[in-house]
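ok, trying the design again with the full structure, not the truncated one.
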């Protein structure tokens, strides 16, 4: 768009290849105005030439775009309805993007045999009330060469009803899935038991309010595996440590990536002591910028009050002029002074 002044024609198959009209959007008007200002014509393979400098072609283009928008909106709504009908009939609406399920095309899916043992292992261990970290660590030790498991992986497997032959419809209700019929490898009763255990654990877990100032969270990385370090509170002391060592015993070297945040009573060196000067400089600069912003806000508030006073004076003089109590010259003089002050 920056070089439109050097362009005479834009060649497209048809206008929607240049932009798609969206109701309530300024995109169409903005592009048309740029084309008009730079005298650029649109050559369509299907539809001929459009010269937006001519009013009749502007009007025709506007009408066509409105018709096209309504047609696209109707097609989109029909597509949404078709997806809803398909989902309510017990079929997945897209590729099977879930652990252990492969999409074959033409609405067919199959269970990946290698994943059956993994998923059963996860369900059996959750039903045995084993800690999630222990389950994750065992999964990574046994099958970690193919995929590395995290807590999110365990939740995704545990909450997926397709393994017992069910899915959610468009209203969020459980219904039978017809595509996986005969391939189920988890019982519905076990799936329900796992949902109760997960819900109970999450209900008991309460996140404590963050009372510590941790400016480096998310900015420190493990020197062994490259993963982000997490915060750990141990005996009242804050440490940054790598999480991989607790998820996989093969990452034992990650225990070397353990940094204490603050020094203890013995005065041993820690991370905060090393970076304190840098943090102080950053805080001073932040305070300076915050002070400048505060001053600007006060100045804007003063300008706002002054503008309101100017408007009040103009309104009063207008009323006096209409009542014949002020001359036109006085009104013009006041408006000129106020205009100059506003500028």
């Amino acid at each position: 768009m920056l070089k439109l002044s050097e362009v005479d024609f834009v060649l497209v198959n048809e206008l929607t290849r240049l932009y798609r009209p969206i109701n309530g959007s300024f995109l169409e008007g903005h592009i048309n105005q740029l084309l008009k200002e730079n005298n650029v014509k649109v050559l369509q393979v299907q539809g001929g030439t459009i010269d937006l400098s001519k009013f009749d072609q502007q009007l025709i283009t506007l009408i066509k775009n409105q018709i096209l928008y309504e047609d696209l909106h109707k097609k989109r709504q029909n597509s949404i309805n078709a997806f809803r009908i398909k989902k309510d009939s017990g079929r997945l609406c897209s590729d099977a993007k879930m652990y252990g399920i492969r999409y074959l095309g033409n609405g067919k899916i199959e269970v990946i045999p290698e994943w059956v043992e993994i998923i059963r292992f996860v369900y059996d261990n959750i039903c045995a009330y084993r800690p999630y970290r222990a389950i994750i660590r065992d999964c990574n030790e046994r099958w970690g060469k193919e995929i590395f498991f995290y807590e999110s992986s365990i939740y995704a497997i545990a909450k997926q009803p397709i393994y017992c032959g069910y899915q959610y419809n468009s209203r969020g209700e459980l219904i039978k899935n017809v595509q996986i019929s005969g391939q189920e490898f988890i019982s519905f009763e076990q799936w329900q038991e796992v949902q109760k255990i997960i819900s109970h654990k999450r209900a008991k877990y309460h996140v404590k309010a963050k009372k510590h100032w941790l400016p480096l969270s998310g900015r420190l990385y493990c020197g062994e595996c490259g993963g982000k370090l997490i915060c750990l509170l141990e005996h009242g002391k804050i440490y940054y440590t790598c999480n991989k060592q607790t998820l996989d015993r093969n990452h034992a070297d990650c225990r070397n990536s353990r940094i204490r945040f603050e020094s203890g009573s013995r005065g041993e060196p820690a991370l905060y002591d090393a970076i304190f000067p840098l943090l102080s400089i950053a805080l001073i600069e932040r305070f300076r910028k915050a002070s400048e912003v505060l001053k600007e806000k006060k100045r804007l508030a003063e300008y706002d009050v002054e503008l309101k006073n100017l408007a009040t004076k103009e309104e009063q003089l207008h009323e006096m002029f209409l009542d014949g109590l002020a001359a036109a010259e006085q009104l013009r003089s006041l408006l000129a002074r106020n205009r100059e002050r506003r500028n």
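Keeping the full-length input from now on. The radius of gyration is 34 Å.
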